Amino acid sequence: MNSDERIQLENNRKKTSLKMMYFNRYLLVRYVSALFFFTNVYWFISLLLSDSPLYFIPLVLIIALIVSVAEQVKMYSDHSNHAIYTRACFTILLGTNILLILPTCFSSSFAQLYPFFFNQDKSKIFVLVILAIGILLSAIILRRLYRIKHNEDKHYKRIKKYEKAINI
Known about the structure:
Blueprint: H1 3-23, H2 27-49, H3 56-77, H4 84-99, H5 101-106, H6 110-113, H7 121-149, H8 154-165
Helix pairs in contact: 1-3, 2-3, 2-7, 3-4, 4-7
């Protein structure tokens, strides 16, 4: 391997490393998206198997998550700070979790929404805790997306230091 090839290889390695650093700014977002996706798939299947007319709720959330995941995949090759669909997806998730608190506590639709639970106070408390966790995770991700959009995240500072160190 001559020196030109070695220099080209090193430049490619630096560019790939930089691309991965930008992509990893969204790592927590991808993990939480996967958690929400599989939770909603399970909920959707449960509602379908119980013939609940409310199966459309997790279906809409699954579709929003798929669009978000597609945007995340696209960001690997085309870096962007503006995750528009991901932000919209987590806003929808946040709103849905907030809205689901009412039927969980005060409505007779608990059995239709959660056919895998008995309509008891313990079950309702458990569902409320899960909804609260969903609200918290959605809020954390929305905050993270805001910080990424405005280049206020820790990863961005590390990326800039790395760019300065490798003279790009």
